[in-house]
Every structure is written in structure tokens, then in C-alpha cells.
Automatic annotation (TrEMBL), chains A, B:
The gene is folD. Homodimer. Keywords: Amino-acid biosynthesis, Histidine biosynthesis, Hydrolase, Methionine biosynthesis, Multifunctional enzyme, NADP, One-carbon metabolism, Oxidoreductase, Purine biosynthesis. This is Bifunctional protein FolD. Pfam families: THF_DHG_CYH, THF_DHG_CYH_C. GO terms for biological process: L-histidine biosynthetic process; methionine biosynthetic process; purine nucleotide biosynthetic process; tetrahydrofolate interconversion.
Amino acid sequence: MNLTSNRGNIIKGKPVADKISESLIKEVDELVNEGITPKLAIVRAGSRGDDLAYERGALKRCQNIGIDTEVFELPEDIAQEEYIDLLKKINNDKNIHGVLCFRPLPKQLDEKVIKYAICPEKDIDCFNPINFAKVVEGDKSGFPPCTAQAVLEILKFYEVELKGKKVTVLGRSNVVGKPAAMLLLAEHATVTICHSRTIDLPKVASDADILVAAVGKAKMATADFVKEGAVVVDVGINITEDGNLCGDVDTDGVIDKVSMITPVPAGVGSVTTSILAKHVVKACKLQNNR
Amino acid sequence: MNLTSNRGNIIKGKPVADKISESLIKEVDELVNEGITPKLAIVRAGSRGDDLAYERGALKRCQNIGIDTEVFELPEDIAQEEYIDLLKKINNDKNIHGVLCFRPLPKQLDEKVIKYAICPEKDIDCFNPINFAKVVEGDKSGFPPCTAQAVLEILKFYEVELKGKKVTVLGRSNVVGKPAAMLLLAEHATVTICHSRTIDLPKVASDADILVAAVGKAKMATADFVKEGAVVVDVGINITEDGNLCGDVDTDGVIDKVSMITPVPAGVGSVTTSILAKHVVKACKLQNNR
């Protein structure tokens, strides 16, 4: 696809998610016909608003696809041992194929210990370091973080050429920036990772054919961050002073410059739960040698 | 350090290795006084020439520092089960603190299985994915691959500023390119990873303040790959037609353009075994709660 041919196209997440769901419905149908129903467990300690919102979306998505779900709601002050005991129970439950642990965990829980307690085969959102290593190694048998994978799926759906292209990732978090960079590298992009210490960030960012913003700073990527004709994927979800959602990119400011840009909301966030569902089905198949 | 002030300096590995060794000798002395002698196990299946050469260097380095060593030489056709049994024995041996497995393994051994058999606490050359994940996550409790770590130690020894600087890594291997990129990212460099599919490689490379070449192609990085005043770290070790060693960088061609460059031989390779020794001591201390 010619990167300058679709100036200012807003590329939404919904068609991407719908296509993934459509294909999953068929896969789940086949599994159910064999007597296997994929099942997702959600482990949530406490009831943070954004966790609940994501949970509602994930449950709805799974329901529509035919994936069973079970939410394990734990008190916010749960002891580490009890949390780990639950993970062990889930690890041993043959009817559960994937598990999502909401993070960040409450303070008393040591993420550095708990992440090893979730068995890699059921770890569908890349909590266990073994899956993280697989993403970086380019080993496709693991489960990348859903948001990072969503970035890739959107670019593929809209037929954005990645091979050899210059991709700049703004942000180096372990949940989005780094894994997204590694997934794009595996697609043979030339990847640059930028962050708060980068000197002359706009110059480095505007050198990219494809810009992925995952910093968590409202509208920080302004027009000077974007090359004429670039494709922009905006992973940020920030709340503005007037209570609206916005991304890391100043969409209005860059819209006349870019060829495509994902909106916030209705962009990357809309694809994440379909990746989650896809990972549950993948895990279910692997665990049942399908 | 001003990147243009030392035009054409050849920066050797030996002073870096010597400094590390010097500090390790003291650390080992203190441990020995407490009745603890750090010990390295080397596991080698077969007797490839480059393995043997590296082994000789590693044994000599350890000896000079006061680290005990034991070489487990296995037949090249050893069965996977036996190889894993040996690793288990080493894992359980309280007198061994670090283990180096020569790779690539012989064909009949499945690296994807064996890498999980080495316990992460003794895995001083980043074979186990748990250590690989730690490198990428920026978790300093693990053990990065010795060669990747050597790149960083050389840059630090020669006081090359990394924060905010543009670093380009040529090569995306899991043993050097990616981990070196991640170590440099943790030092707040702006990191670009290039590879064979990168479009206009010389242009991307010559944009960097610091160029790390880890491709394994003799003298592939010519003058057009290098910015005026850049620092170049040449990780490649290649054998020329006339039987000499050379790096991935055309040293003669770039020497008048760079501010510093590591030679091949006597560059990165000279530092690797001192990092190995450093990791053995670190592992020994961690295992003895020191």
C-alpha cells in the first residue's frame, strides 16, 4: 500500500475486531462439536474502574464468540499465598484454558513472584517471563501482550507494509512499547524505540514511516512528530480535563499530514479483547493438541 | 565525552577486561576468606575449534581471578536425556555457581527443551528464557549474554555517553543484537535495530552516534555506514580468505571518520570472558546471600 495514498484516513479498530471474532466463532464451533469449550478465567483483586470496564468488554466479546468465562473476584487486600493458590488451582483446572490477571496488582502482592506462578500455557496476556521471552525471541508459540498484538493486527488488516519500513515506537514499557517493537521487528520492520530521554524526539519520530505512540501522555505527539504520509497507531488512552478520552497523538493536529491514523477511543482498544479471545482459543487448541 | 574529540581512536578490550578482573580478584579473595570459592562449570558436547578456543580463554581468565572451574566434556552424539541429567546434577551441586553450555548444541539436542533445564540462578550466559526476559525487562538480577554485556562495558569504560544518544544495532540475533539493544535502551539510549531487510541500511546506520555491528558479515559496514565522529563497536568475528580475523566493520575504511572503534581481534572478544567471570562471582554471591 502506498503510504501517501490515503491521507487522513481514520482507521478504526472495529472492522479488525469483527474479522477476528468472525473467524474465532467458526473455530469455537468446531471445538464445541468435538466436546471442547474454550474457557477464560479472569482474576481480579479489588474493583478498579478501568479493570471493570475492560472486564465487561472481555466478557461480552467471549460470550459472542462462544468462549466460557469465569471471574475470580478477590478482596483487594488478599494475601499473596492465597492469590498464588488460586493460580495453582486454575493451572490445574483442565476446563480453563486461559487466564487474565488484572495488573497492576495490589501493593501487598509481589508481581515478581506471582508472574512465575501462572503457567505459561494459560498465560494469554504475557504475564509470565517465559512468554515475554518468546515474544522477543520471535517464537510464535507464546502469547504476546494483547495490546501489543493489537497494534500489529491493525496494521496487517489495513495492509500497511512493514517489511523494511522505518517504525518508531514512542514508549518503552514492558507491557506495550517493548513487545510491540519486537513484534514489528519480527515482521522485518526497522524499529526505533524512543522515550522520555530521547534527544529531539520530534525529529526521531518524524523520520518514521509508521509511528506507534504508547507513552500515556495526552496529545503529546503533535504535527512535528509526524512525517508527511505516515501511518500512526495511537495506543494511549488518557482522560482530558473535560472528562473525555484522548490518545497520545494530537489527532486534529496531524490528521492532514498522515495517511492513516487510529482513533481514540475506537482504535487499538477495540481490538484488544478480540486478541484476548484469540489467545484463549489458541491456548485451548494447544492444550487439546488441536 | 565529546564524540568528535578522539577521531580514529582504536579502543581495545584489554584495559576493560583488566579492570574487571582486578575488581573480581578482590571480590573472590573476600569470598575465599569466608570459605566460599566461586566455581564455573563448562558443558561442551563435542570439540569444535571455536568452542575450545573460547574455553581456553575462559579457563585462563577464571584461574587468574581465583575462580574454580570444571569442564564437562560430552560426546558429540550425547542423548538429550543424558545432557539434561548432567544439567540437573549441576543445578543441585552447591559448589557450582555458574554454568556455560556451548551453543549451538549438536543436532540431536533440542535447544528449546534444554534451555529450560538450566536453573536461571546459575545461567550466567543467558540460555534460559527467564534470564532473556530479565534483560529485556531491564531487571538487573539476571545475567545478560556475555557478549552483549561486553558491548556495554566497553562503552562505559571509555566514557561514551549513552543517555539520549542515537544507537543503531546492526543485527537482530537473540544472542547479541536484541539483548545489546535492550541493555543500551536501559541506559536511556534511543535504539534502532537494523537487519538484512532494512531499506537503505547505510543511511539508517550513519544516522547513529554509536554503531554496534553484530551481523557476522566480514567488513560489511563501510564508510557510508558511519557518521562523522561516531563511536563504533564491532562485535563480528569473521575469517577472511587469507585466514585472518576481521570484524563486521571495514576498519581501515572508517578509521578517519569515527571518533572511536573497537578492533577485531582484541576488541569485544577480549572482554567476554571477564564478563563470564563477573557473572560467576555475581551468581556465587547471590547463591550465598552475599
